[in-house]
Amino acid sequence: MTIKLSSLFKSSLLLGSLLCATSASAEDNVTAGRAEVYKQLAPGSLEAVSSREQIKKLGASNIAPTRIWKVLEHGEKLECLECIPVVSKLLYNPHPKTREIAAWWLRRRIFGVFGPGQVYQQAVNALADASESESHRVYAANALGEFLSLSGVPALKTAVTKDASALVRGAAVAALERLNSSGDGALGAALTDSDESVKLAALHATTRINSFTDAASVVALVGDSSALVRRRAAETLGVMKSEDAVAALMVLGTEGEESDASVRTAAIWALGQIGDTAARSVILDAQQDSDVSVRSAAKIAARMLRL
Q1: Which string of b and e fits 189-201 if b means at least 16 CB within 10 Å?
Q2: Average pLDDT over the chain, rounded to an integer
Q3: CA proximity to 292, closest of 275, 268, 257
């Protein structure tokens, strides 16, 4: 009997020790807040939310771009009115990603950005001010695009049609693309611009803006003096699958009519995308073109038309 009581006592002590150890272990593993989400990750590996002071220090001239990006991204939900003047200056920073992230941060503010005379209105005014430098107006156009507000469309339209700088006009076209707006005819006007870079920016935008349907303005560019513009116009018409462009593309895809092989390749590719059998003879002839790229495009186009 004494032996049984002794064994029972030892067993009770062992069980008590195990329970205490388990309880202590449970207390060690108690987590809350961010630690509960990330469990046992080392605190140093977790990203900290930016403070007001960190954002206000971004105005210094010796801050690395990557530091700016990190601080703003980690301060996405921080409301800080006194930080807005500092970040608004980054809209005119030479680094494109810095400008993009600055606009991204600012457009999330509830106060201090979109009111009368505030950051957004200042960008509209800067774009319209011919006394500002060319780069400043370009950056203002970039900002209006990144703010994703359609209220900037009239200012961008004016810049596309009236600004003396091709760089500014091109930036305004890119901003309209970002806003998914044809700018109440501004995009069509850009397609007739005298500068190659503006026409190329407009061609890039045509297939990305849902409301653009003016295929005739694109067709007109297949006769442009720039081979690059003719090529991009052909590619655009292929993406748009414009049947009204078939006749012009047939001319562009003919070796005797178009000297640039890259343009002929784009034209034949576009004819394949459109799928009009009226282009049958041109596609078949293109399989004998002197350029291998044109021949390859013609073979693919022929398959698409089941020739």
Answers
A1: bbbebeeebbbbb
A2: 89
A3: 268
3-class SS of residue 148: coil
Q: What angle do CA 200, 204, 210 make, to 5 degrees?
A: 140
pLDDT (tens digit per residue) in 158-167: 999 999 999 9
pLDDT > 90? residue 40 = no
Separation of CA 227 from chain center? 27
* 160-163: Cβ within 8 A, 24+ apart: 160/186, 160/187, 160/189, 160/190, 161/186, 161/189, 163/130, 163/137
pLDDT in tens, 85-130: 999 999 999 999 999 999 999 999 989 999 999 999 999 999 999 9
DSSP 251: H
Question: What is the value of pTM for the model shown?
Answer: 0.82
Residue type, 266: A
Candidates 260, 199, 267; CA nearest to 229 is 199
Phi–psi pair at 219, nearest 5 degrees: -55, -35
Reported confidence tier of residue 25, pLDDT bands at 50, 70, 90: very low
**Cα dihedral: 224, 226, 228, 234 (round 10):** 10
Residue whose tokens read 């200056």: 89
Per-residue confidence band for 6, with pLDDT thresholds at 50, 70 and 90:
low
Tokens matching residue 3: 């032996």
Confidence of residue 307 (pLDDT cuts 50, 70, 90): confident
Alpha-carbon distance of 298 to 265, in angstroms, equals: 8
Contact partners, residue 166, CB within 8 Å, separation at least 6: 193, 195, 197, 198
Quick check: helix, strand or coil at residue 183?
coil
Residue 109: both structure tokens together? 């503010």
Closest among 116, 192, 178, 195 to 142, alpha carbons compared? 178
For the chain, give the longest Cα–Cα distance: 115
- Structural domains in the chain, CATH included, are 215-307 (1.25.10.10)
